[in-house]
What we know:
single chain, alpha+beta, Aminopeptidase, eight-stranded mixed β-sheet, globular
Amino acid sequence: MTPPFDSLPQRITTARLTLERFERSDALDLFDAASTSIDAMYPFLPWCHPQYSLEDAHEAIQTAQSNWALEDAWAFAVRIKTTGEFIGGCGLSRVDEHRNANLGYWIKSTQVGQGYASETTRALVAYGLHHLQLVRVEIMISTLNSASVKVAEKSGATYEGIARNRLFLHDMALDAHLFSFIPADFTDG
C-alpha cells in the first residue's frame, strides 16, 4: 500500500520543538545557523562549507521543496517551540522500494548539548514510520563523528555495526557506523 503523500503533515511537534517543512522565508535563518556551525559541521556535512552563502540557503530550500513535491525526501526546519528560534534541520531521504529511508539531522553549534538532536530524531523516525509507512530508518554516521554517534545512541537507535567505505566525504571514502529504527522500536506509542 502506498502512503497518501499528498496529505502528509507538514509540521511535527515535540515537547520542546517544532519541525516544519522548509519554506522560502527560512533562507536567512538557515544561512545564519549554518554559518555559525561551519567548523563543527563541514567535516561531516560538506554542504555547510566555509563559503556557504545566502544563495546556497535559497537553493537548499528550493531543493527541499522540490523533493517534497517529487515524494523523494522530506526535510524539516527545526525550531524551539517557545521562541521560534531556528536551530537546525532534519530529514528523511533515499526512500527505497523496501520502504527503508536514511535519516539526517544537524543542530546549530550554539544549541548543541541540550538534547535537541535526539528529540528531533525520535520525532522524525515516528513520522516516517507512521506517515510514510517506512519499515526501517537508518542513520549512517562517519566513524569520526562521535557527537552524532551519541545522538543516535541517546535517541534509542539500534547499533548494527560499521559499514566499510559507506560515506564519501571530501573526496575520501570513510567507514560509517550504522544505526537503525524499525516499527517495533516504537511500540510504546
